[in-house]
Amino acid sequence: MVKTVQPGQVWRNDASGSNFLVTKVYSEVFSQYAMLRPANVGAPSADTIRIKVTKLEQGMTLPGYTFTQEAQEF
Asked: In angstroms, rounded to a whole number, what is the distance separating the alpha carbons of residues 31 and 26?
């Protein structure tokens, strides 16, 4: 859980254990989305993944992903 989802953050996919880098965050009407790209050597040629940001009282999260830099405050 973070205060805001921002480009440059790394999130781990809960199912695969793979790390993903947030490359872009944008809003559409009443929703916010994050674009993720695998954080590995093949990242430049990999497809991006679009995830809807979930907003809670405690902050924001990406469903199915865990923030990997918990000590980082925003």
From this structure: 9
Query: Each residue of 12-55: pLDDT tens digit?
Result: 999 999 999 999 999 999 999 999 999 887 667 788 999 999 99
What total of structural domains would you count in the chain?
1
User: The whole model's pTM is what?
Assistant: 0.85
| 52 belongs to a structural domain | yes
Residue 24 included in any domain: yes
Q: Which domain holds residue 60?
A: 10-66
Count the neighbouring beta carbons within 10 Å of the beta carbon of residue 52: 12
What is 25-59 written as a DSSP string? Answer: EEEETTEEEEEEEESSTTGGGSPPEEEEPEEETTE
Cβ distance 48 to 40 under 8 Å? Answer: no
